[in-house]
Amino acid sequence: MLITKIYCQLDDFYKSFENYLKQNVLPKSSKGRKSKLTITEISTILVLFHLSGYSNLKRFYKEHALIHLKSYFPDLVSYNRFVELIPSSISFLYAFLKFTTKLNVSCRFAFVDSTKLPVCENSRIHSHKVFEGLAQRGKDTVGWFYGFKLHLIINEKGQILSFDLTAGNIDDRKSLRKMMKDIKGKVLKIFGDRGYISQSLSKEFLSNGIHLIAKLRKNMKGKLLSVFDYILSTKRALVESVNSILKEQLKIDHTRHRSPVNFIANLLSGLVAYHFKENKPKIDLSFNFKKDALLLV
């Protein structure tokens, strides 16, 4: 069953994660109320919420978890107590994500894109206080928004290779430079949109053996591309499909957050849920043509 698969993978990783913390991190104070639920159980429930189809964690926990998951988690607590425990899972979820993304880096081609994560409606920007000093106004192809941007690099199998979260007004190229550190020396070509291209960035990546291929800005000269690279550049919609799944199916995007901490927990658990999602979007690279033919684009 999926719930067993999720729990076992998370629990196996937690054992290694716990040993690392014991060796490298100072022990926390024993003050405070001890939780009945383990970090693995809290994380599993959060991941199951994103895969459940529920749009609201409160409804999922009260209508599904407390009723149907009691046999799996006999020490389930009240919803209010569970919300208090969510922050304790953040560092573990982040570590698990970084671990799984490193396992996915076994490809030659990658695709990069960003998607907006608004934290409130535009009409409420001036009265919004939860993310004051953190969220910023940004602009995408649809228009202005107030919040953050999630940047993803994926491979042709739809697996996440690297991710980054920035304020809405941060230049995409800064995020790409940061994410590429995770896959340096393992990816040969990366495809993105105009927001990720610049002559200096292309030269920097090329010096590390990585070709950055994107639609050129108006002030850039045309260049020659192989037919194979041109076709791959038209497949960038793959990463847009992944963003769509994360936002529409796995519910990482909503404007009801009451704290930045729970926003981060919701985002990380949604990304972990995508790792466990079956039938990820992917593309077939077995093109049948003369791959060394060139096109001017």
Automatic annotation (TrEMBL):
Transposase DDE domain span: 109-259
Name assigned to this protein: Transposase DDE domain-containing protein
Highest classification ranks of the organism: Bacteria, Pseudomonadati, Aquificota, Aquificia, Aquificales
